[in-house]
Every structure is written in structure tokens, then in C-alpha cells.
Sequence to fold (673 residues):
Amino acid sequence: MPGIIRSIAVGLFAFAALTPPGTSAEVTLSGFLQQNTAFNTVTENPDGRHYKWLEERAQLKLDATGGAWRVLLKGEVAYDHLGRQDESELREGYVDYAARNWDLRAGRQVITWGLGDLVFVNDVFPKDHEALFAGRPLEYLKRGVDAVKLGVYPGLASFELVVAPTFRESRTPDPNRFWLFDPLPAVTNRTTVKPEQGDAGLRVYRDIAGYDAAMYLYRGFHRTPSMRPDSMLAPTKITYFYPKLFIYGASLSGRAGGGVLNLEAAFYDSRQDRSGSDFTVPNSQTRVLVGYQIQPVEDLSLNFQYYAERMHAYDSYRGALPAGFPAEKRVNHYFTARATQLLQHQTLRLSVYASYNASNGDYFVTPELRYSFTDHLWGAVGANFFGGKPWGQFGQLSQNDNVYLQLRHEF
Amino acid sequence: MKRWWIWIVAGLLPLQALALSGEEAMKKSQAAFLYPGKDFKARVVMKLINKDGQERLRELTMLRKNAGEPGGDQKYFMYFFQPADVKDMTFMIHKYPARDDDRWLFVPAINMVKRIAAQDKRSSFVGSDFTYEDVSGRDIEDDNHIIEREEKVGNRDCYVVKSTPKGTDADFGHKVTWVDKANFLPLKEEQYDKRGNRYKLFTADEVTDIKAFPTAIKRTMKNLQTGHRTEVAYIKTDYDLGIEDSLFSERYLRQPPRKWID
Fold:
């Protein structure tokens, strides 16, 4: 809490100092109060509690603009009933400077690349998978990165360069709250080693014949950790680490046959183990996404996606995998569908998202009903259902089905 | 005296020139209502009012730029102030009269720009009683237009134009528009369903000149079947501001420039 207040104070001071005299600054303050609860529907948590999430949260957002400068600070304080102490955070806090053909954003910021709906091909930025599975509002899916983003717009194309001096990982579900697959449950001595370097990404985009085309480059690390035991025969310690990763990708989006067609692909170059002979490091991969979105009738939209991941050094991977460890398929095919219906002058929204992995039978289904009681108060009720193989991405979560409530008053 | 017929023809000429076709009237009306100026900016306050009188507010800045002549391509940029859960959202439309629009939405919560499917120009604009077509125009060529009569709306002389869709896929039967004879603004419009029942009523409630362009700064669309209505006020309306083409881009969708959205 004091950290956030200090950040806001520093931001205000910086803004006041940077605004040239004579320019009028425009300052807006807004925020919300929120209640968020997720009940288990299958079984209690590993720590014995009945809730996946139970918290009250307040956000204060300060947005100040003067001339070419802008400061945005979004701080949150939260009270978690399940015992976490560190839920207050600076969600975003940055300074913008905009010139005619370029702009700069420095500070903690949320960045989203690519076209996928809960499928990530070129969106290399940190996520909060726990938030998604614990029924928190959608914005918590993304974590901010502490970075400098430079945008250059020479006309030929637009360039966006993101440089982060420190690496920020994705948040994975907490094993105290979520039942997760663990190949070595007896080993309790565990440590995490984060990369000491930062990471960098470049996106280049422009219009090509009415289509939005983009190219992506990333040089950094996997956002979710890999685990390495100190010994395969008698492991006593597990080290979590973030393997080195380069990504080369592209995307295309445009109108086709009355809907919107999204195409995206990327090559994941697993730099720490290009031969694929280290089973603890993810294999190099090709990822492909095809999405199609239509609006068949008023206020109903449908989005279908096909997504595939293909391992490059599959034979080496299988050769190196110790006995007893579950084997991944060479190719994983996913199908996802989302239907969203708006009703009552778009104040009531019914939506359902489903993802199915045709290679191993994994699935994730999340229906939601959201209603705006007034222009300042909305509530949502929804659920997360998981199933499939006990070690699959969603199958391992099958004991974690939950029903969630979100209530937010915005001011 | 042999040329007496010339005088008769000459006497008829002004009448010929004045006899406007229904299509011409609607073209001029669209030019006056949706295309005035090279560009346009307004703060739009929409009140969505249900039959019990409960109100919801939608507030946005709307910017428009014409690519060329009235009836041609247009670009729209919208920035939302209210309701609170869509604050900072931006929305861009590239409108092409003869084909589907391109639409992009910026979702600030996850900082994502996405294209959205836009097959149906007749769908509701932000939940209001106005459709996208009501906001940005329906293709003149989609309907047959006939001037049925002339009539006053208030103290203004109007053409009364009946427009009937040429195809069978339209979701309405026909509409009747009262077009001001002097400035060609639509002052009133009734939409009828396929069974011939009147179901929507548009009225231009206040018209004022801004930079010599007559502008309906207050307007209402009422759904006569549900009793729901939407009242719209244009404040800070202005024309010919020199809005650059570059505004209508992903860069500014993500970071809308304050000078255009205040």
C-alpha cells in the first residue's frame, strides 16, 4: 500500500516537473471497488480451503495529460481472505511522450500482440494464468511489463520496439490453491532461478491490400518455468528456470466472406536446447492459428479458432524422456469456439468459450453472464470447467472446477 | 407569334428544374446530414431511456473524415468516456458505401486492438435505438425513393420521401422521411416493419448552423413497439478542423491524441 501511494506521488511529481510551464494539464481520477469470489465445485483446495478466490479490491487510476506528455498510474489495494499478503500492486504506471512520427512509453505497461482469443502465438508478454482459471475479470489475464516501448511511424510501416531491462514471468496457478500435475511430488526442496537478463521484442505492422499485416521478433525467455531435478534416479531438489527463447512470427487479419479472418504463425526457437535432447527444456515449436469471426445476427458474434503446436525435434525428445514421465504428442491440435450474445440494449452479455485439444482430449469451458445494473455497477457470474488427461494443460486442472462471481462499482 | 410555344416551354422550365426525384432528394439529404464539411467532430451524449424512464448514458467523441464527395468513403473514430466500464475504449470504422465496413476496436483493459466482424449495418449502435446505418448512412442504391407529397414539419416545408428496399433481405418494410426543402436535413423519419406497422420514429429536435452547415444537434430515435428511446445531443460540434488521415490508424486507436478527443 505505501509503495503504491509513493508511486502515485512520484508520478505526479514527475508529471508536474515535466510539463512545460504554460501548457494546461488535464488530470482525471477514476477507479473501482470490486468483490470477487470463486467457489470450488468439485473438491476443496490442496490447502483445504473452499474458495479459489475470495477478495475485495480497490483501484485508483490517475491519468494526466499535458501537451505531448501523459502519465498514467493504476494502483490497486486488495484484501485476500485466503491468506495472501501481497495482493496490492501497481498494475500500470508509465510516462508517454508523443512526437509527430514517434512515441515513447516508459514504465510498467500491459502489452498485447497477436490475434488469438485465449490462444497465444505472438503474444510474448507475461500473463496471469491463475487469474484466468480462478474467475477473475479478463484484464487480470495480462501482467504489466517494466519496459520502454518505442513506436516509430515513418509511413512505410509502423515499428514497435519493446525493451525490458528485467524479465517478468507469467503467473502460474498456486499449488496451494490448485490441484496440478506434479511428476515428482515427493521432492519438496524447490527453488526458482529467474533470468538475470531482460528481454526485447519488435513488431512491424502495416496495411497490405486491406489486410492488417504484422511481423514479430522476440528475444528472451519462456514465461512459464521448466523444472529440472538434481538427479533423475534419486531427486532431492527441483530447480525451476526459464529457458532461453527466440520467436519469429507473423500475422494477417482482414475481412473475408462477411466475417473477419485471422491468420497467425510463429517459430519458437528454443535456444537452450535446439537439439531437443534435454527433456526439461521445451522443444522448438511451430505454432499456427486460424481464426474466423462472424456476426450472424444482431448482437450475436461467433469466433472459431484452430490452433496447432508442432514439436521440431520430437524423436530426440522421446529418446531423452525418462520412463514414467508422460509423453507429449508431436502435434497438438486445438479447436476453440466463443459465442457472445448481447441483450437488453447491450447491458446483458451471455458468453461461452470452449477449448478442446483434439490430440489428447483436454478441454476448458467457461460460460459467463454479465449484467450492468447501472452505468457504474456491473456483476458477472460464470464458471470454469476443466477436463482431460491428468497431465494435460487443462486435464490436470479437472479437480479445480469453480463457479465465480464478480461485482464492480466504477467511479 | 409563330413562336408562342417557346413561351410555354420557357414557362415550364423552372418547374422541370425543380421537380426533384426521390433519389436526388435522398442523396442531397444524406450529403447534408452525414457528409457536411471535409471533416467533423462532436462530443456525443446519448441517453438510453426505457419505457419506465430509467436512463443510461453513453458519451463519446466522434470524429469523421470524408475521403471525397458526399456518398463516398468515410472514416470514423470514436473515443468513449461513459459508461465507466468502456472508458478509454476506442472504435474505428472505415466505411465503404458499396460493401461491408472495416471496424476495429481497442480494448484498454488488455491493451488489444482487434478487428470486429461487421456484416450487419442494421445492428444497434452501442446498445442504443440507433443502428450503425442510422449513424453513418444507408446506401441510397439499396432502396427505391419516391416523393409522395410535400408537408410541413413545424414551420419547415418538407418533401415526404418513401423509401422501399429493393432486395428482400432488409429487416424493415419501408421508411418515410421528411426532408427539409431548404437545407435537406431529415427532420423526421418513420420506419415501418414488413407488416406495415410503424415501429421506429426519428426526429431532429434542434437544428442550428455551425460554420454555415445546418446541423441537427439534438435528435431522438424512439422504438414505438417497446417504448424505449434514445436522445442524442451533439455538443462542441465543429467542421473543417483539418483532421489528418493518420488519426485513423492503430497508433492512435491505442493512444488517442487528447487534442482530438476532449
In short: Helices of chain B lie at 4-18, 22-34, 132-136, 250-254, 258-261. Residues 4-18 of chain B form the longest helix (15 residues). The interface with chain A takes residues 48, 50, 56-57, 82-85, 87, 100, 102, 109-112, 114-120, 122-124, 126-128, 228, 246, 249-251, 255, 257-258, 262 of chain B (CB under 8 Å). The first strand of chain B starts at residue 39 and ends at 49.
